[in-house]
User: Which sequence fits this backbone?
């Protein structure tokens, strides 16, 4: 027995060392704590450890202590008790006993329970460093008896001759003590050993079942009953399910096994004749439970570890469980991790125990057969458990890296010979499917969930859902299909491993089912890649997020685009693996016919997705152009390139001649883009790997584009003065061929260029001539341009916003060419009505839907859409404006700067007996000086405001109708002069409500909700009629001098409210402002394609009338929606001056949905027919029409390009009325 003094040990070292002693442990009794204490002090490794920033020399950790004790006692535990050498629980208990007796102490003198870890630092009480080489002698060593390491106490007991004691550890076992010695003497030694092993197996099974009971009693139930809860209830159930799995099912299986053992023991005691059949039945019952548990064990351990690290309450709870267990003096209930691994370890012991029993079983014993069957069944169970572990790992960890040969015994592999390679390929397909499904799951875990939950958000909330949809698309659908496929493959693998007959059936089923999902997903990849790149380039937070995800352990250093692209190469991988399986499949096997069918489906899927991929690439190309087109300041045009229906028809290089004729080598290259709605000329410039396209000319809408000439002879690039044409608005000389010097000798001359001339029929348009470098390129451009223009006509014809519906087609004529003589007036012989200037629809009291049309020769009224019913009711000259106050039955006419008021019954009486048929009209103003008038509602009043000029000032008179006076019967007898003359001089039908002047020239007046807006040379003057306070908008912004000058130089045409903004329309552009008059949109102005001579609103569209076409734009966005071409087009009614149209021109129009009733009238001239004699017709026909809204096939936001149709819906009209011929000419 070793001496307790450290000094004496050092003296002994001078004479004897452990290396000289063949058995250094022969004097050590490991059951005595004092002996272990001395060995611990001598062997524990010491060093300098730091805790709380303080270094402690000659110190050690709890793990050092437990490891040292374990190295001393593991041999005893293994030999005498069959305890695994990896089981450190006994060593931990010894260490804690030494700690309690202060054999060593925690450096901070804490009262924490010693753990098998490195968290705490310890030192010996008598370990003094520095003042002596000898250790200070301890007066006492710790004392205790370690019962599980004790041997027999009897002095006469030895290994060869155990003592009489019934409980002597040296006795062969409990079974020997319970059997009659007479029976024992009749048994051969092998049978005694066999029975001993059987009974020891039963006792181990008892202990195992007790351990499983302990799991429920000490951990599962207390976790559920814990108060306060260690985690949320829903999370707790999930935690118990993931960590403990089906361990209670195992307990039930082993309880039944133990009961069967008890029954056999009772039936055949004292000698158990047969035990193998019991284990055969048990193996059959274990078939599902144990593989499920063992396969899930790695995930359970990881979840337990993660929760322990993150959940302090759980750690405290388990420490309390340890203290409770210590009170029960049961060292086996301290380590939850040990209990979790207990089933796996116990399953591995079954074959060893059964083989030991079989080795002691005599030949001819019927139990030998059952034992062999049981051993094989449980080994197969272990193989299935190993396979389950591989399947559950899903490619993660060491078990996830196993290959087929790692899961198959060597002798089995050798027996398979040629089949081994086929099985390896099948295994590789299943393993790859596991990794693929795991990556699809990681998309959700690594990207989608963090993007949705991160605060502050990486991507703005209003954009996030769109981004996730564009990038990840229907990946969840793919995951569902492949998860189902993987489950089928795993099931086959568990049933047939290690030799799988075929996996073709589930592959064929999956290929048929996931086809539609891939047809949707694969074409979306170009869009997803673009969205990721675009977000990375413009969002620094997103770039940081993606970089962090790349470093995720499950990311395998792959970025987001790689994960999104993962499904595409997977289909190709299927092809390779299935071909490999087919090559290794023997003739006559069912796979020889089935695999080609699967390959055909997968190959067809790849081909069928190609058009969708190309379409997506074109869409992405459009987005790239949209992002990289660079306009000059203030000239941006929204071409709606992000529209779903947009397409790029052609793109390529064209040449442009220098702008001045003295330049000889100034040719420039343009990159021209032909979209399905615009032609755009750009100059590319590359910087930092990104190509920017600087827009060289204003984009040309295809409906304003006409091909002029693509057949002119080629010219040479060196010809600078003798050019075929100029670009822009310059004149193109096409009077004759170019000079001989400018024509190349052969068409193949490298300096030869081929002119392409086209016309832009817009405000900034004209003839453009560009050049191609080959005849073939010119022909291609011509073909693509014709295709694009034709396609746009067809598409926009079916999606136009307005169509023209004729009101009158043959009534209104005007002279063809003004001659030197005065234009003849209208009479029955001469049907010329003069120029149509205004119109207004109205409904009479008896319900007749009429329209009044004003001309140079008077006012005509008739039924709508019926030219034959038109009759002249007023013989007034120079009619320029008219309006109808239906609530008062009053018709207002401005003729030759004089404003007249008529009772409508006097013009179109409902019956001859009407009280107002003879009503005398009244002149509203005294002199002929009215330039315009406006009718509207303000503060509940119906007002008429007219403007007259006085010097440079604009004088406004605000009148209010007087109902009583209007409805009075005329006292003066009606006569021809009174009917059409002006009596009395001062109108009795109106009273003067306000009068004010504006020191500026004014053009129009618009009623707002509570104020009026006067359109004048200064801009838009917003005035309150109650106090005449006014403000001019848009406010002058010194930061944008260019815009301020444009507003001053252009004429204001209209003002419309758009949500919380106002759209101010000038003759060349529009601008959005807020209620304070400040510009609200960063894009600046909206440039009109034409020059607006009149503007009108039919919500949600604003219509701009150029003499050549009507430009229809979406009011909230400014997007071009339609262009309606024509000749000498004018707006004659903009929706105001009528009870049905007034509100839409006011401030509340944006609250209403789009009305399908016409609210705008126009007039255009019919193109003069070309006669053979060259003589022009005497009169020009004017068609009066209304713009009727259509029901578009697409919502307004998608109407992004003009319609080139001028069609009229013909209503019933007299037989002699000619049909209105549409025109598409720009001339």
Assistant:
């Amino acid at each position: 027995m070793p001496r307790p003094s450290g000094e004496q040990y050092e003296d002994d070292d001078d004479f004897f060392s452990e290396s000289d002693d063949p058995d250094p442990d022969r004097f050590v009794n490991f059951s005595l704590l004092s002996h272990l204490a001395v060995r611990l002090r001598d062997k524990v490794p010491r060093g300098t450890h730091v805790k709380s920033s303080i270094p402690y020399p000659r110190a050690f950790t709890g793990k050092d202590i437990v490891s040292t004790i374990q190295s001393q006692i593991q041999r005893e535990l293994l030999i005498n008790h069959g305890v695994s050498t990896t089981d450190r629980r006994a060593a931990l208990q010894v260490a804690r006993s030494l700690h309690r007796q202060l054999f060593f102490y925690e450096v901070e003198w804490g009262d924490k329970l010693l753990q098998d870890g490195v968290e705490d630092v310890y030192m010996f009480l008598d370990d003094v460093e520095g003042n002596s080489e000898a250790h200070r002698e301890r007066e006492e060593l710790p004392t205790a008896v370690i019962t599980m390491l004790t041997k027999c106490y009897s002095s006469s007991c030895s290994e060869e001759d155990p003592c009489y004691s019934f409980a002597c550890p040296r006795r062969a076992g409990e079974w020997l003590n319970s059997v009659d010695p007479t029976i024992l003497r009749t048994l051969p030694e092998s049978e005694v050993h066999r029975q001993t092993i059987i009974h020891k197996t039963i006792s181990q099974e008892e202990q195992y079942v007790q351990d499983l009971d302990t799991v429920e009693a000490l951990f599962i139930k207390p976790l559920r009953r814990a108060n306060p809860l260690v985690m949320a209830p829903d999370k707790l159930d999930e935690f118990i399910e993931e960590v403990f799995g089906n361990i209670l099912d195992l307990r039930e299986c082993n309880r039944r096994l133990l009961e069967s053992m008890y029954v056999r023991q009772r039936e055949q005691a004292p000698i158990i004749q047969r035990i193998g059949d019991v284990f055969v039945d048990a193996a059959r019952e274990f078939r599902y439970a144990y593989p499920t548990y063992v396969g899930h064990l790695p995930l359970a351990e990881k979840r337990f570890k993660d929760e322990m690290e993150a959940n302090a309450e759980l750690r405290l709870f388990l420490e309390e469980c340890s203290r409770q267990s210590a009170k029960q003096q049961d060292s086996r209930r301290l380590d939850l991790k040990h209990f979790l691994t207990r089933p796996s370890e116990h399953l591995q012991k079954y074959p060893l125990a059964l083989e030991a029993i079989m080795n002691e079983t005599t030949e001819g014993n019927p139990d030998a057969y059952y034992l062999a069957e049981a051993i094989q069944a449980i080994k197969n169970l272990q193989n299935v458990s190993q396979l389950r572990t591989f399947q559950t790992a899903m490619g993660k960890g060491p078990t996830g890296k196993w290959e087929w040969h790692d899961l198959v015994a060597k002798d089995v592999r050798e027996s398979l010979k040629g089949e081994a390679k086929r099985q390896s390929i099948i295994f590789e397909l299943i393993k790859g499917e596991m990794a693929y499904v795991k990556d699809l799951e990681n998309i959700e875990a690594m990207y989608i969930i963090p993007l949705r939950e991160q605060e502050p958000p990486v991507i703005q909330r209003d954009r996030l859902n769109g981004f996730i949809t564009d990038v990840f698309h229907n990946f969840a659908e793919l995951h569902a299909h492949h998860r189902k496929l993987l489950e089928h493959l795993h099931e086959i693998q568990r049933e047939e491993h290690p030799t799988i007959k075929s996996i073709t059936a589930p592959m064929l089923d999956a290929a048929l089912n996931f086809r539609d999902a891939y047809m949707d997903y694969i074409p979306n990849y170009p869009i997803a890649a673009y969205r990721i790149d675009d977000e990375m380039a413009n969002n620094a937070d997103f770039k940081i997020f993606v970089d962090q995800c790349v470093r995720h352990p499950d990311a395998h250093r792959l970025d987001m685009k790689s994960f999104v692209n993962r499904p595409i190469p997977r289909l190709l991988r299927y092809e390779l693996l299935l071909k490999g399986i087919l090559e290794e499949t023997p003739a006559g096997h069912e796979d020889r016919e089935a695999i080609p069918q699967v390959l055909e489906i997968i190959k067809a899927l790849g081909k069928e997705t190609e058009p969708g991929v190309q379409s997506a690439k074109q869409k992405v190309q459009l987005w790239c152009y949209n992002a990289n087109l660079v306009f000059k300041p203030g000239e941006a045009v929204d071409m709606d390139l992000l529209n779903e229906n947009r397409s790029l028809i052609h793109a390529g290089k064209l040449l442009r001649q220098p702008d001045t004729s003295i330049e000889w080598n100034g040719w420039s290259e343009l990159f021209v883009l032909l979209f399905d709605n615009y032609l755009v000329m750009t100059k590319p410039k590359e910087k930092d790997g990104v190509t920017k396209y600087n827009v060289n000319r204003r984009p040309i809408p295809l409906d304003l584009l006409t091909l002029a000439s693509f057949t002119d002879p080629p010219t040479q690039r060196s010809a600078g003065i003798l050019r075929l044409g100029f670009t822009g608005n310059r004149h193109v000389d096409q009077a004759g061929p170019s000079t001989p010097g400018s024509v190349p000798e052969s068409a193949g001359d490298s300096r030869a260029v081929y002119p392409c001339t086209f016309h832009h029929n817009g405000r900034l348009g004209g003839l453009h001539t560009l050049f191609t470098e080959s005849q073939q390129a010119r022909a291609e451009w011509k073909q693509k341009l014709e295709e694009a223009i034709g396609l746009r006509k067809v598409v926009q014809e079916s999606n136009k916003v307005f169509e023209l519906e004729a009101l009158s087609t043959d009534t209104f004529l005007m002279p063809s060419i003004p001659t030197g003589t005065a234009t003849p007036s209208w009479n029955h012989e001469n049907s010329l009505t003069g120029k149509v200037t205004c119109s207004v629809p109205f409904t009479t009291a008896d319900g007749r839907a009429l329209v009044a049309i004003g001309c140079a020769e008077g006012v005509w009224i008739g039924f709508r859409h019926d030219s034959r019913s038109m009759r002249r009711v007023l013989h007034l000259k120079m009619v320029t404006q008219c309006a109808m106050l239906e609530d008062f039955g009053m018709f207002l006419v401005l003729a030759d700067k004089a404003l007249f008021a008529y009772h409508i019954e006097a013009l179109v009486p409902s019956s001859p007996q009407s009280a107002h048929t003879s009503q005398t009209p009244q002149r509203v103003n005294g002199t002929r000086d009215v330039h315009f008038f406006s009718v509207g509602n303000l503060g509940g009043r119906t007002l008429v405001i007219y403007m007259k000029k006085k010097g440079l000032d604009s004088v406004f008179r605000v009148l209010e109708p007087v109902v009583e006076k209007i409805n009075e019967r005329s006292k003066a007898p009606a006569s021809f002069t009174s009917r059409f003359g002006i009596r009395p001089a001062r109108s009795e039908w109106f009273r003067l409500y306000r009068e004010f002047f504006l020191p500026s020239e004014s053009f129009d007046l618009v009623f707002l909700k509570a104020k009026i807006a006067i359109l004048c040379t200064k801009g838009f003057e917003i005035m309150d009629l109650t106090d005449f306070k006014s403000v001019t908008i848009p406010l002058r912004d010194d930061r944008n001098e260019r815009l301020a000058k444009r507003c001053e130089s252009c004429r204001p045409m209209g003002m419309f409210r758009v949500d919380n903004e106002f759209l101010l329309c000038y003759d060349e552009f529009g601008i959005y402002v807020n209620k304070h008059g400040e510009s609200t949109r960063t894009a600046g102005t909206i440039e009109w394609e034409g020059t607006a001579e009149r503007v009108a609103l039919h919500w949600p569209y604003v219509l701009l009338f150029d003499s050549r076409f009507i430009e229809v734009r979406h009011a909230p966005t400014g997007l071009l929606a339609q262009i309606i071409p024509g000749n000498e087009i004018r707006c004659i009614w903009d929706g105001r001056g009528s009870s049905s149209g007034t509100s839409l021109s006011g401030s509340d129009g944006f609250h209403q949905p789009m009305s399908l009733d016409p609210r705008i009238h126009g007039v255009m001239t019919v193109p003069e027919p070309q006669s053979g004699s060259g003589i022009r017709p005497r009169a020009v026909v004017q068609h009066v029409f209304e713009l009727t809204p259509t029901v578009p096939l697409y919502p307004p936001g998608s109407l992004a390009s003009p319609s080139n149709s001028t069609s009229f819906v013909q209503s019933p009209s007299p037989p002699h009325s000619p049909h209105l011929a549409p025109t598409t000419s720009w001339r």
In short: Residues 591-628 form the longest helix (38 residues). The two ends are 123 Å apart (CA to CA).
